[in-house]
Amino acid sequence: MAFLFKKSRKKSTRLFYATDIHGSERTYRKFLNAGKFYEANVLVMGGDITGKLLIPIIKDKNGNFRATLQGTTEHFAAEAELSGLLERLGILGFYHKTMEEDEFLALQENPAEVDKLFQELARERLASWVDLAETRLAGTGIRCFVTGGNDDDPFVLEAIQREATQSFFACEDMVVDIDEDHKMISLGFSTPTPWKTPREVNDGVLWDMIVERVKSVSDMGRCIFNFHDPPNDSTLDTCPELDWSTDPPQPIVKAGQVVMHGAGSKSVRKAIETYQPMLGLHGHIHESQAVAKIGRTTCVNPGSEYGEGVLRGCLVNISEGQVEGYQMTRG
Fold this sequence. Notes:
The chain has helices spanning 25-38, 83-92, 101-108, 111-136, 154-157, 203-214, 266-275; strands spanning 13-18, 42-45, 54-59, 65-69, 72-76, 95-100, 143-146, 168-170, 175-177, 183-187, 223-227, 238-240, 242-243, 250-251, 253-254, 257-258, 260-262, 279-281, 290-294, 297-301, 312-319, 322-330. It is of the alpha/beta class. The chain folds into two domains: 13-51 and 121-330, Purple Acid Phosphatase, chain A, domain 2; 55-112, no CATH class. α6 (203-214) runs parallel beside α7. The chain is globular, with a radius of gyration of 22 Å. The N and C termini lie far apart (55 Å).
């Protein structure tokens, strides 16, 4: 007698995605802890991982310290009193360097040396993050994939491109296996912004980059696009429209209302519409937390609140080319 059995489904892969943490120590640690907390198999960080500012902590001749943070100069009687300041800088993702007054004045006169110091500190933090991931995720089976974004300098990103790691993997400009069934393509570039960030290209160049990488994937139905730039006019890219002629750029206001628009990439949208991957992971526009369907593709932007030490993310369950469910998180 023949027996009929329903084909058993493979176990789902649970992916946790976050992006745009801009050097924040607290949010990065939360990101690493998310694997165990949410029982995720895979962690994906979608870009803009380096900080934005370097804060000098100046040691006066009398032994006191001072630092200017967000327009306010704070004074400290001894180095032991700096702990609170350093914690705040870590949350904000800022770098810091303690220096004598003479060194500070010399740096002010040499922008090239300031840039060099900034890059050294940024690389140092990223290298420490690789070490931390390797330590915390060791033996868990959780794999952590990290790419850069448009704000991340290529020289600084070299710090995460380490060989022979067990848990932390730089995936920029690569096709990687998420599990035995699904692949992921990662691109950190964006289309031009008013701030002229390190990794910007026009939409035509971005399209060519996408097409070249798609050639390595045989089944787009089981592919994830981890593209830092969100698809244009998708609700994942809604933000104030800016006047690029002002310094700094200012929101455009009409009839007393801030004008909103879609600032994402037309090429990313075209690629999703053309290739219909299973899932799109995006960021770049911090204030535009959203989930959108473009054809069969589920696209997510979890948004970012890194400056408050808050980690926004999205949990996604995938199995056999299908998004079985998703949930936005904040914590």
